[in-house]
Design goal:
Layout (H helix, E strand, L loop, with lengths): L2 H9 L2 H5 L12 E2 L11 H12 L12 H10 L8 E4 L2 H12 L5 E6 L4 H8 L3 E6 L8 H11 L3 E5 L11 H10 L5 E5 L3 H4 L13 E6 L11 E5 L1 H10 L7 H12 L1 H23 L5 E2 L6 E5 L3 H10 L2 E2 L1 E2 L10 E5 L3 H15 L1
Parallel strand pairs: 1-11, 3-4, 3-5, 5-6, 6-7
Antiparallel strand pairs: 2-8, 7-8, 9-10, 10-13, 12-13
Helix pairs in contact: 4-11, 5-6, 5-10, 7-8, 12-14, 13-14
The structure holds pyridoxal-5'-phosphate (PLP).
The site of pyridoxal-5'-phosphate has 12 residues, from helix 5.
């Protein structure tokens, strides 16, 4: 073993050594339907205006870490209840890391339904916490008795509920979620991850005043701003204050801040794009349902989970047609032969439908 290998074995934690690097495929030249991005950009006039705005940003100065104006805009634009504030993150991925770090007492457990967003487990393990995944039912609904039993047994410090879930696309039953939040009272916090809220039009944000242990987490990534990396979360002020202590003081950079402020001034444009994508979702669902050999699961997000007979072969054939989707076939027993595809423009959706027809035919 070389000097460095020996050193790394000695100093890097075994759970970090054990994982492979997060792989992001190169999408150059491909129709990119793997990451739930909004396919629409800002109109040219707004892009020019944004350019002028960004040119004024003082790149030589650190951000002002209170982010007062941006936070106020977010609270007003996204229905954060009166008396509640938000904490900003460099994407909601960073918020998940902050929650893990803040709650990583020795022996602490993080719990989530499974399959769900992979970062919940990855982040918990990186923080030295145990991660427990409670299987969903075959139809991807919550198995409430199993969730309640796991809560009683593991006493999780943190429980994640994605609403809607990724990669399955469904909204869990709101009454069952409320039962879980109530069962967690006095045990731990419940993070409702609403990354797809603009497509679901359902939210636990209005419930914040009712549940002192509730965190509602959102991101601007899926409504057209994935590149700027901005997430936010709200919770009872005392809880939010603890989570905010973990945040690196300058975690949201000045360009992100200026671009987000600009986008929030033109939220109507982003909301109109989300409305278009919701209409496309309905059209695409109907087209996919007509393809023999393809099972389409209902989705409240800007994506669909599909099951085919041989997902590896189908994904390879889609790639032959320059279409990139995400293959979930090997991720989880419940996701056997499943792939996930982003709802995109009418043109890109048509390309996908045509290629999928040929791939399964
Ligand atoms: C995409 C996604 C996120 C990550 O959002 P970023 O703000 O881009 O880090 C969080 N949660 C779920 C469920 C997601 O699908």
């Amino acid at each position: 073993m070389s000097y460095l290998d020996a050193l790394l074995t000695k100093i890097i934690r075994p759970e970090v050594r054990a994982v492979g690097a997060y792989h992001v495929p190169d999408a150059a030249g491909l129709v990119k339907l793997d990451a739930m991005e909004n396919p629409y950009t800002l109109p040219p006039a707004l892009r020019a205006e944004l350019g002028a705005r960004l040119a004024e940003v003082e790149l030589n100065r650190y951000p002002v870490p209170s982010y007062r104006e941006l936070k106020a805009r977010i609270c007003a634009g996204f229905e954060v209840p009166a008396g509640f504030d938000v904490v900003l993150g460099n994407g909601s991925d960073e918020l998940i890391s902050m929650i893990s770090m803040a709650c990583a007492r020795p022996g602490a457990v993080v719990l989530a339904p499974s399959p769900a967003f992979v970062m919940y487990g990855v982040s918990a393990q990186f923080a030295g916490m145990e991660f427990v995944g409670v299987p969903l039912r075959q139809d991807f609904t919550l198995e409430l008795p199993a969730m309640l039993a796991a809560i009683a047994r593991h006493q999780p410090a943190v429980l994640y509920l994605p609403y809607p879930n990724n990669p399955t696309g469904n909204l869990f039953d709101a009454g069952e979620m409320a039962a879980i939040i109530e069962a967690m009272a006095g045990i731990g916090i419940v993070v409702v991850d609403e990354a797809y809220q603009p497509f679901a039009l359902a939210s636990f944000m209005p419930q914040l005043p009712r549940y002192p242990n509730l965190v509602v987490m959102r991101t601007v990534s899926k409504i057209g701003l994935a590149g700027i990396r901005l997430g936010y979360m709200s919770a009872a002020p005392a809880l939010l204050a603890e989570l905010d202590k973990i945040r690196p003081p300058y975690n949201v950079n000045v360009l992100t801040q200026a671009a987000a402020l600009f986008a929030l001034e033109h939220l109507d444009v982003l909301n109109a794009q989300a409305a278009l994508l919701r209409e496309e979702r309905t059209r695409l669902a109907a087209q996919l349902a007509e393809i023999a050999g393809v099972e389409v699961f209902p989705s409240a997000g800007n994506f669909f989970l599909l099951r085919v007979a041989n997902v590896d072969a189908v994904c390879a054939k889609l790639l032959d047609h320059q279409i990139l989707v995400k293959n979930f076939g090997k991720m989880h027993a419940l996701l056997a032969n499943c792939l996930r595809v982003t709802v995109s423009t009418p043109e890109e959706n048509a390309l996908f439908v045509a290629a999928l027809r040929r791939a399964v035919g």
